[in-house]
C-alpha cells in the first residue's frame, strides 16, 4: 500500500498528524507492506527566505485568535509528546526544506525522508530552528543519514526546485487546499490530523478495498476554515 502525505514543515497539525499516523501504522498488522512518502505543500509560498519570529506573522493573518489556536495546539501536542514552543518558532519560506526532503526520498529512500521530516518539524516547532538556513538544514540532513558533500552541493544549486514546485501544483490540481492530507493508493484521501484509531481504520479499509478493486475514487475534502485550529492548516 502506498500512502502519500501532503504536508508543510510550517504546519503544526502536520506534526500532530505524523505522530498519530505513525502510531496507527505501528498497530497495523500489515505495516511492513505500507510505503509512506511525504509530498510538498506550501501554506505560505510568499514567506520570506529570511527567518523572522512566527507569532507576529500569524497575528497579521489571524489576529488575536492566534493565542487560542496555540493554546489548543499546545494541549493537543502534549498528548502526542510534542512540546510546541510557538514563542520561539521562526517563520521562513519552506521551499528549501522541501527540496531537501525530495533529495532524501529520491536518493536515500522513504525511511530517510521520514527521519528528516521529523527532524525538520522538531526543529521548527520545538527548537526554534531556522529551516531556511542551509547550514542548519545540512546538519539535520546528515543526522538523518544523508551525505554531507551531496547535501551541501545540492542546497547550493537549484536542483530539485522544479520537481518540488511541480508536486505542489499537482496537489492543487487534485483539490488539496489544506494539510495534512493523506492519500492512500492514489485514490482515497483523508484530510487532517485524525486520531490514530481513525487512521488505523482507514488502513484496514483501504487494504480491504484494494483486495477487491473499486471503481469509486473519492477526492479530498475542502476545508471549511482558513486557519490551523481544526486539525489541518488551510491556505
UniProtKB/TrEMBL annotation:
Residues 3-203 form the DSBA-like thioredoxin domain. It comes from the Bacteria. It holds the Pfam family DSBA. Residues 209-235 are annotated as: Disordered. This is DsbA family oxidoreductase. It comes from Peterkaempfera bronchialis. InterPro entries: DSBA-like_thioredoxin_dom, Thioredoxin-like_sf. Transmembrane segments: none annotated.
